[in-house]
Every structure is written in structure tokens, then in C-alpha cells.
Specification:
160 residues; mainly alpha; 6 helices; 0% strand
């Protein structure tokens, strides 16, 4: 009985006499902030599409599509311990694409379109799109993995 009382006292000391304190609201995370920045860049391109060279809007949409996939998957990746280790590196890659590469290309074009030829902008955006798609391929799709695991389990139980 003494050990039980000690355990209860320790729990009460940890929790406080009134119960556990509410966890502070962490606010929007980095993934949420990046998602908002990506959407803001896309809106900016849509509003100023007349100023862009031909093919640039399509290239930006390609980058945005790949980044949406990456950010959605990064929201779910922390379920798996193996992927949790690689997630910060992949998140850092997404930050570089959103805040540096895409932002600098568009800022440079809209600030002084004369300095950069339209074909060069589209080519650079294509490179950013390639990088974003490679990143999307490296971030695991949790739902697909779970479906594969379930399929394997069903085949094991019930045969092919």
C-alpha cells in the first residue's frame, strides 16, 4: 500500500492538484506556412500571367503540384519511425524550393523582366520543377504503403 501512495503522490505532483495543464497551442507549423507560401506564389503568377513568358505559368503549376504532394505527405510521414528520420531533410529541401528557388526566380522576373530572357525563366522553372518532383518521389506515400501492407496481409491469409 505504501508504494501505491507514493505513486499517487508523484502523479499528483506531476499533474498538479487540479489535473493536467492544457498543452499550449503550437500554432501553425512549418508545413502549413510553406503550403500558404506556395499558394501565394501561385496566386501571384495567376494575377500577373500576362507579364510572364509563354510556358512559365505551366512550369510554376508543375512546381506547385509537386510541392503540394510533398507537403501533404510530410504531414503524415511522422507515423513511421524510418521516415521520421529523413523528414527534416526533405522538409529543408521543400523550404529551399519554396523560399529560395521559386521565390527568387519570380521576384527577379517581376522586378526586371528585361534582365532574364523568357526562355531562360521557363528553363530555370523546369529545373525547379524537376527538383520538386524528385523530392515528391522521395517522400513516402503513407496511404500507398498501408494499402500494400494490407494487400500482402490479405494474400497471406486468404491466398492469391
Amino acid at each position: 500500500m505504501t508504494g501505491f501512495r507514493i505513486a499517487v503522490r508523484r502523479c499528483l505532483a506531476l499533474l498538479g492538484r487540479r489535473g493536467p495543464a492544457a498543452a499550449p497551442d503550437p500554432g501553425p507549423g512549418l508545413v502549413h506556412a510553406l503550403r500558404a507560401e506556395v499558394e501565394a506564389q501561385l496566386t501571384r503568377v495567376e494575377l500577373r500571367r500576362a507579364e510572364l513568358p509563354r510556358g512559365a505559368e505551366r512550369a510554376v503549376r508543375r512546381v506547385v503540384r509537386a510541392l503540394r504532394v510533398v507537403l501533404d505527405r510530410l504531414d503524415e510521414v511522422f507515423d513511421d519511425g524510418v521516415d521520421r528520420v529523413a523528414a527534416p531533410e526533405r522538409l529543408a529541401d521543400a523550404v529551399v524550393i519554396v523560399r529560395t528557388e521559386l521565390a527568387e526566380l519570380l521576384d527577379g522576373w517581376f522586378a526586371q523582366p528585361v534582365e532574364m530572357a523568357g526562355d531562360e525563366l521557363v528553363a530555370r522553372l523546369a529545373l525547379v520543377g524537376d527538383r520538386a518532383e524528385r523530392l515528391a518521389a522521395r517522400v513516402p506515400d503513407i496511404h500507398a504503403r498501408r494499402a500494400e501492407d494490407l494487400t500482402r496481409e490479405l494474400r497471406r491469409r486468404y491466398g492469391p
